[in-house]
Amino acid sequence: MKILVTVKEVAEAEDDFEIDGLDIDERYLEYDLNEWDDYAVEEAVTIAEDGDDVEVVSVTIGPERAEETVRMALAKGVDRAIRVWDDDLESADMLDVGTKADILAAVVEEEDPDLVFSGVQANDDGFGATGVALAEVVDMEWGAVVNDLDLDAEGGVAHVHRELEGGVEELTDIELPAVLTIQTGINEPRYASLRGIRQAQRKPLDVQGLGDLGLDASVLESAVSRTAMFEPESESDVTVFEGGAEEEAGQLADLLRDKGVVEG
Amino acid sequence: MTDVLAVTEHRRGSLRDVSFEIVTAGRKLADAQGGDLHLAVIGGDVESFADELNVEGVDTIHTVADGEEFNHDVYTQVVEQLYADVAPTTLLLPNSVNGLDYAPAVAERLDVPIVTDAVGFDHDGTLEVTREMYASKVATTVEVDADEAVVTIRPSEFAKAEGEGSADVQSFDADVDESAVRSTVTGFEEVGGGDVDISEADVLVSVGRGIEEEENIELVEALAETLGATLSSSRPIVDAGWLPKNRQVGQSGKVVTPKVYLAIGISGAVQHVAGMKGSETIVAINTDPNAPINDLADYAIHDDLFDVVPALIEEFGGESPL
């Protein structure tokens, strides 16, 4: 069995930041493996450890900088990785959902996995749409926001829980092959061991351009573009307590007593 | 061709709030485009759902009597066919868990661009969607340079439409290919039960990622105990297994409306806010003055929780464990 895990290196903004044009100024961004993808990697690696002959391959669309993130996935137990990038991608403004799905679909066709895991959404742009769009492009079945997975590979079905709103989970049987978007909390992602980190350096990491995947720059054409970024206007009329922890705790205590909170 | 088609959502026999919010959003967009608002309700008791949905602003309601509960394979097929019939400019879908389980597939199938999680939009010849990025720290304008678009709207962002409507209710016969239905919903499960019901509490001490380590949880436990309050948390604390699911406030956890909500080390992600914005008084203790929780809080302390919380425990005669 083969599991393909899509991973993304995401940017996180520091507490204080400045906007430069259409994005946050690079100086205020830190890069990390997308939180949801960490759970997707863990889920795949766990299945590989518990089963016989399961290969886990990760794919990312991203620049050379993203290799650090990809190596982290390899260190956690992914067998090999693919990074899609070239000059055309480098000069593209924004990859919309359709573009990402088309690029990942080319990788799915090449790899022919039984299962694809992606995170529910990315921490940075939060579109939450790539996994399901990908399933449609490659004609696989899918399930979004999965927080429990019981895989019956022989029966060709994934018994999943989908985390709905309000403390309700939907129990669904999904035919394989399928794309599952993985929700945080489905497992407890491991930390990479030193041994894993050393091994990761020797694991294959292939860089493929659009041409290698049988695509060309036309896949990057998009009707969707970001035209502005701004700090949302605060509707806040918050009263801020100041003067150091002791003083602030005192003011808060007065407020709480005023609201009827007393010593328990 | 300037109409808007919006799809509603129901679960276990009830329409969800977002079904009425999408009417408000859809009406606004239809007015901007100079078209009609079509509403679709798929599966379940569509007749009675249509009665309920016949509120001010809706021009036509399409009822599609396929299935009981949501199934993305059915919804994808039905919406694709209804889209061809209505021929709208914009397809509006909820950015709910189920919305995200079919909207991207529909967009792909229709070969129409998709923008998700809209919090606002404008249409002045070109569709402009407002959406947030970087965990709500910034907002962006996204332009869709196409004749048609699929847009999903963030739940709880638009007001619920009310008032008596005069929509034309039409039944739509969809041709669902059962062989393309490759997933089956077998049931539902309530999670987060147990001995504590945080939605009943008057005072909640709620803890988030800012607590950093599992062993620090005892600090907020001590505060809750000292104040006679109930302990709750944001999602990451439950994901990490530091507190049980029944303590989780937010979209996938409980909706709470206590008299006092003390948010400690919680940034205020939109999914969390959805669960606590109805609280009477909100106090935030968070080092980041730009954290979204500050937009909602009535009172805030922008200082280290590890200094403030022990001092607060002592103010109330308790003893800080840290």
From TrEMBL, chain A:
<dbReference type="InterPro" id="IPR014729">
    <property type="entry name" value="Rossmann-like_a/b/a_fold"/>
</dbReference>
<dbReference type="Pfam" id="PF01012">
    <property type="entry name" value="ETF"/>
</dbReference>
<comment type="similarity">
    <text>Belongs to the ETF beta-subunit/FixA family.</text>
</comment>
<feature type="domain" description="Electron transfer flavoprotein alpha/beta-subunit N-terminal">
    <location>
        <begin position="21"/>
        <end position="217"/>
    </location>
</feature>
<keyword id="KW-0249">Electron transport</keyword>
<keyword id="KW-0813">Transport</keyword>
<protein>
    <submittedName>
        <fullName>Electron transfer flavoprotein subunit beta/FixA family protein</fullName>
    </submittedName>
</protein>
<dbReference type="InterPro" id="IPR014730">
    <property type="entry name" value="ETF_a/b_N"/>
</dbReference>
<dbReference type="InterPro" id="IPR012255">
    <property type="entry name" value="ETF_b"/>
</dbReference>
<dbReference type="InterPro" id="IPR033948">
    <property type="entry name" value="ETF_beta_N"/>
</dbReference>
From TrEMBL, chain B:
<dbReference type="InterPro" id="IPR014731">
    <property type="entry name" value="ETF_asu_C"/>
</dbReference>
<dbReference type="InterPro" id="IPR001308">
    <property type="entry name" value="ETF_a/FixB"/>
</dbReference>
<keyword id="KW-0813">Transport</keyword>
<keyword id="KW-0285">Flavoprotein</keyword>
<comment type="similarity">
    <text>Belongs to the ETF alpha-subunit/FixB family.</text>
</comment>
<dbReference type="Pfam" id="PF00766">
    <property type="entry name" value="ETF_alpha"/>
</dbReference>
<protein>
    <submittedName>
        <fullName>Electron transfer flavoprotein subunit alpha/FixB family protein</fullName>
    </submittedName>
</protein>
<dbReference type="Pfam" id="PF01012">
    <property type="entry name" value="ETF"/>
</dbReference>
<dbReference type="InterPro" id="IPR014730">
    <property type="entry name" value="ETF_a/b_N"/>
</dbReference>
<dbReference type="InterPro" id="IPR033947">
    <property type="entry name" value="ETF_alpha_N"/>
</dbReference>
<dbReference type="InterPro" id="IPR014729">
    <property type="entry name" value="Rossmann-like_a/b/a_fold"/>
</dbReference>
<dbReference type="InterPro" id="IPR029035">
    <property type="entry name" value="DHS-like_NAD/FAD-binding_dom"/>
</dbReference>
<feature type="domain" description="Electron transfer flavoprotein alpha/beta-subunit N-terminal">
    <location>
        <begin position="4"/>
        <end position="185"/>
    </location>
</feature>
